[in-house]
Design a protein that fits this description.
L-ribulose-5-phosphate 4-epimerase (chains A, B, C, D); globular; homotetramer; Aldolase_II/adducin_N_sf (chains A, B, C, D); metal-binding (chains A, B, C, D); alpha+beta
């Protein structure tokens, strides 16, 4: 297709990266069967690369990833794209700094989703990565813009890169698809640890100034420069 | 055996498929030791292919799968068939649209089984796959038709492809053995997430109209056509 | 050593089998680090084969298994035997039908151990394998016969092949080491499922006559003849 | 670098050992993504070897481990060291018998951390390895000596080789890095088993004299001499 001629190499690389990142979802048991996916924005183009719908993780290849435009229409690929494509396309349209989106139904985040309760920030790891509580998004049904809108509305008023959609599951964003996967992994880890702690009593809170200091340090000092 | 001459290729393929699907049971930790099995109907024949009894998952091969008629009698194979063969044969006799049956004692479904309590439909994934709550079947003891009858009676009055038999475990059905395995995997996933959520409070319900819309969409739009 | 001349082949085979069975303990996450072991009786001799003490599971080989007499003294092997050797030797002395013993600190059984509470028989799998509740043995400290005596006293008055020693962990027995491992695996599975169920309410009991029928069938009909 | 000329072989060996020990953290699921690390003292030198910051476990190699002095300054290596280097350097400075330090955010220990509650010694394995309860350290924020000081202050008044820092995670020490990893593994195992037990009732305590006897035996008799 001529529209893709000038980004062929970028798309080839993103197909490979998006495909490989799904291994992190299975490794950390964030997904079962075919229920969860990763997508990436094609930088500088109104395009995204996403998992095909209903295909098992073992059967994913760079070639069966699907390229869509930001209205969710297939531009390149033999398969139907993930049924979450519309929601993720909405996020890319509305949040230009987002380079990757991940969707999971991970267990402990799902438990908070069912009660519609945000995960309080009572672990240093939560302050580091989420800068506060992990918020709950509205109940929204698949098929129009309401999931996408719920994600964007919630994350626009939070420092958190992950939102737990009510009765549904997690959407995580990042400047890169890899960072979005990291947010999805840590969302489940924090949701699990806080859940388990609360089974036997109330958490000791962390003061807001410490949350702020931890978030600032993790965003600006942690890792390799 | 002459009875099998005209379905030799079909049976060879089903032996391979049924054997391979057991890997999904161990991967998702739905079974321990030898406690769980998959079977497939031989389409157009009153026959099924099932796991041998008490054989470890590592030792399963296409060759040691057992072919039985729908009264549970061995037609081809060196091994005794699963002790659940009678129950599964009953399902194939009574439910002609069923192409595969799976039995597990998966942990969280087992927890609901012990209390004899259905899993309420409070997750979109549950609405998608089960179209409502995951029902409880009666207590039934092995050795006659009572398990098979309990499965059929329960699933005939439900949209769910899985039933949790009281004090026992899960039986899941599908138009194909692979779809039955998917139902068993998601049954445990939903049972786990809802259980964990309820440890800390009551679920927010999903309105019936949303359950219906999600079920309809998942059955008719999701996946590859 | 001359005492071993006539059983050299048997011991070689048992070293291999005992070593390999430890893979089942790690696969089912019944043990961490070096905390758990399998032993086998050398049939017709007052000897047993057991794991060396404090050696990591990855480093086990048939050659570093240790042969001891039934007083727990090393007869063949370069390593110190498991610190549970005395307890297991006691079991082999007092229970001539036992061919294998397994010790674990598996998590959910350990949770019942801490409360000193037997696991009630509310799952068909528990009736099948244990013929009733999984009993609690006394608190006993390592270093003399008290652990061995606690195991034998408890299992002599039960149909169960596994005992949960108070504040400690599981000892499982079987006519073969493989059957003892199966009992240890199912002990944890049953302890886990019943624990989880009770978090949200009381179990529905299984009538004694059903427990008896299930136990009888599993011992006499299940598996390959 | 001339300062390292006489310890080149030692450091090469420690890079390999420290790198390899991280596999134990992932195997026992004590860490997710990049959140946890192992370090080793270079015996006889004011140096330590530690994981690079923010590098995935799959990407660790002996070569990308970082050598620092005991003020936490990089002495050899291309990468920025773990953000926990300052805390661990403090431990090596103040506790000369420590040869290895491990940091994790393991789940169940984290649950106790959030409530700021020590893990009571109600399992023989806890008496063996920790000689009593697993203590809680103070809340301390990263960036100065306060984490290191909290670790040292807590462990100096305890027989335990592991401390659970409030709202944060585990630091474990040992005479060797391998023993520190063992302590981190057993800390999570004990924290998990005791947590689960307490969900359904109160633990039966172990008498202090038995705790002392078990600790003494495990330190002096267990394993290979």
């Amino acid at each position: 297709m001529t529209v893709l001629a000038d980004v062929g190499d970028t798309i080839r690389a993103l197909r490979k990266e998006v495909c490989a990142l799904h291994e992190q979802l299975t490794r950390y048991q964030l997904v079962v069967w075919t229920a969860g996916n990763v997508s990436a924005r094609v930088p500088g183009h109104d395009l995204l690369v996403i998992k095909p719908s209903g295909v098992a993780y073992d059967d994913l290849t760079p070639e069966n990833m699907v390229v869509c435009d930001l209205q969710g229409r297939v531009v390149e690929g033999e398969h139907a794209p993930s049924s979450d494509t519309d929601a993720q396309a909405y996020v890319y349209r509305e949040m230009p700094h987002v380079g990757g989106v991940v969707h999971t139904h991970s267990t402990y985040a799902g438990a908070w989703a069912i009660r519609g309760e945000p995960v309080p920030c009572v672990l240093t790891m939560c302050a580091d990565e989420f800068g506060g509580e992990i918020p709950i998004g509205p109940f929204a049904i698949i098929g129009d813009d309401s999931i996408g809108r719920g994600i964007v509305d919630t994350l626009s008023t939070s420092r958190s890169p992950a939102v737990i959609m009510r009765n549904h599951g997690v959407f995580a964003i990042g400047p890169t698809p890899r960072k979005a996967v990291a947010a999805a992994v840590m969302c489940e880890d924090v949701a699990r640890t806080v859940h388990i702690s609360r089974q036997l009593g109330e958490p000791v809170p962390i003061e807001q100034k410490h949350v702020d200091a931890l978030f600032d340090r993790y965003q600006n000092v942690y890792g390799q420069r």
